């Protein structure tokens, strides 16, 4: 039996205990090797600790261990009999907002930590704004270190109420946010339910991660599939075979569906949906398939197969939100490369619009240039028309990267439209 997969990210302020929480998850689910545990125990003894420092299971870089900080996005893979997980552990420092963007960009859920002693702080607000901007559909507010406030129910209630107001202002529905009191250090409500919180009747963190629906909004969206590769076997048995391989980015595709090929605009019908294990009656978002069409159409890598009844818009002018990832500043007039799906084209940067002030979670006047970690609206003109959706509707076809032509380095993550709608 195939287990489903949940991609989730962790975020929170410095010293809120993210690394310890992730270490606790790995340790209590028996997802670490014996030699790793032994190494952590030795390192903990060297630090004069009486119990293992589980944060060392995830703070893997020696320089980070010596400084006691985590500065990179670390991807962890673990599983239970119920589900498999890919976890993006993002840094808590203000100057690494771009890393949070990277880690949360593919997440179906985010675990946002707060320290029970401090409650919602500025960095909590920043990370919540980034998660809302990236349209992460589900959020867990993990109130950590409850052992340090004597497991006081009133503390939990006050923090939960404070955060609920912030979450609503960022567009999160009440049912999308779950609050769980935990102690990563001693294990309360992480994997096992704690007898020290009899007033809490909700799930443990792992229990929630195992039971939350995996299907995101892309499942119900119109069909989209960027073509990654054109398959033309040169064999006698398959000499007429022409398939278009890629991952279904949104919606579902079935034999008999009418589709449009963009940017060309040709319309045709799906004849078959193939996989390595044989044909499928239907393939949903996230499934890698090869689509065969009834008509012989000129299709190349970078084209998009889409629902003919609800296609994306084709445009060479984008109003977008940029998350600037580079030390090199961005100024209007810059000529860069834009990668959208499997297609890369030239782009000219137009006017810069309002910048998101993550300290106040509000938009402020347009800057003259964008610096590292800045998030702002921007207008772009591409050399070729692109089939795009608003990021708020379909993340895959509503997102893109900006690339530096001389070096090939990624400069920015882009979101079509203005996905963050702040309440006024």
From TrEMBL:
<dbReference type="InterPro" id="IPR041757">
    <property type="entry name" value="CysN_GTP-bd"/>
</dbReference>
<dbReference type="InterPro" id="IPR011779">
    <property type="entry name" value="SO4_adenylTrfase_lsu"/>
</dbReference>
<keyword id="KW-0548">Nucleotidyltransferase</keyword>
<dbReference type="Pfam" id="PF00009">
    <property type="entry name" value="GTP_EFTU"/>
</dbReference>
<dbReference type="InterPro" id="IPR054696">
    <property type="entry name" value="GTP-eEF1A_C"/>
</dbReference>
<dbReference type="InterPro" id="IPR044138">
    <property type="entry name" value="CysN_II"/>
</dbReference>
<dbReference type="InterPro" id="IPR050100">
    <property type="entry name" value="TRAFAC_GTPase_members"/>
</dbReference>
<dbReference type="InterPro" id="IPR009001">
    <property type="entry name" value="Transl_elong_EF1A/Init_IF2_C"/>
</dbReference>
<dbReference type="GO" id="GO:0016779">
    <property type="term" value="F:nucleotidyltransferase activity"/>
</dbReference>
<keyword id="KW-0547">Nucleotide-binding</keyword>
<dbReference type="Pfam" id="PF22594">
    <property type="entry name" value="GTP-eEF1A_C"/>
</dbReference>
<keyword id="KW-0067">ATP-binding</keyword>
<protein>
    <recommendedName>
        <fullName>sulfate adenylyltransferase</fullName>
        <ecNumber>2.7.7.4</ecNumber>
    </recommendedName>
</protein>
<keyword id="KW-0342">GTP-binding</keyword>
<dbReference type="InterPro" id="IPR031157">
    <property type="entry name" value="G_TR_CS"/>
</dbReference>
<dbReference type="InterPro" id="IPR044139">
    <property type="entry name" value="CysN_NoDQ_III"/>
</dbReference>
<keyword id="KW-0808">Transferase</keyword>
<dbReference type="InterPro" id="IPR000795">
    <property type="entry name" value="T_Tr_GTP-bd_dom"/>
</dbReference>
<dbReference type="InterPro" id="IPR027417">
    <property type="entry name" value="P-loop_NTPase"/>
</dbReference>
<dbReference type="InterPro" id="IPR009000">
    <property type="entry name" value="Transl_B-barrel_sf"/>
</dbReference>
<feature type="domain" description="Tr-type G">
    <location>
        <begin position="3"/>
        <end position="218"/>
    </location>
</feature>
